[in-house]
Request: fold
Amino acid sequence: QKEVEQNSGPLSVPEGAIASLNCTYSDRVSQSFFWYRQYSGKSPELIMSIYSNGDKEDGRFTAQLNKASQYVSLLIRDSQPSDSATYLCAVPNYGGATNKLIFGTGTLLAVQP
Amino acid sequence: KAGVTQTPRYLIKTRGQQVTLSCSPISGHRSVSWYQQTPGQGLQFLFEYFSETQRNKGNFPGRFSGRQFSNSRSEMNVSTLELGDSALYLCASSLYEGEGNIQYFGAGTRLSVL
Reply:
């Protein structure tokens, strides 16, 4: 059973700090990774995708991928109260030629003003 | 460009009834996937359709079914509803089939079974 694991949190950080969210996955052949943000009562919204080892930056968000360690992380710089949400890590189910995503349980981030 | 549209947004049903949920993907997207989200189980894959064909199915009982029409719109049906079917049902669309494609989610249908 392919798995994606995240710390459920809550992760509490003060406004302006860096929030670090982590995700590990079990399938060594995984090639792409996605971070979704989900506000309470809303649907998931894609915020980052990453396909290669290393860092990918987009505004205040940086995704980091280490395939050897089967680890992907999301850094949020200058955290704002509006960043308070659940962050979901998702990995495609490789080998099935489908778009099926396997999701972690999500990390609840709370940014304190 | 319009996003993924799901209807209805909210549903209240009683045990034993059946329900049909609808999803219209982003224009031009041919792949539609359905997910169930509950507090206990998180986001779980139900099934995926591409060009009117079911490509993959998750570990859900046969009471859960779906289909896709020639215009890529999709419906899912749940028969003989149980209390445990209460969940947020999410539809996601993608331009292509195959692993690694970005999926965009609709607002979801929140189903409550009484």
About this structure: The CA atoms of residues 7 and 64 of chain A lie 17 Å apart. Chain A touches chain B at residues 31-32, 34, 36, 42-46, 49, 51, 88, 92-94, 96-106 (CB under 8 Å). The longest strand of chain A covers residues 85-92.
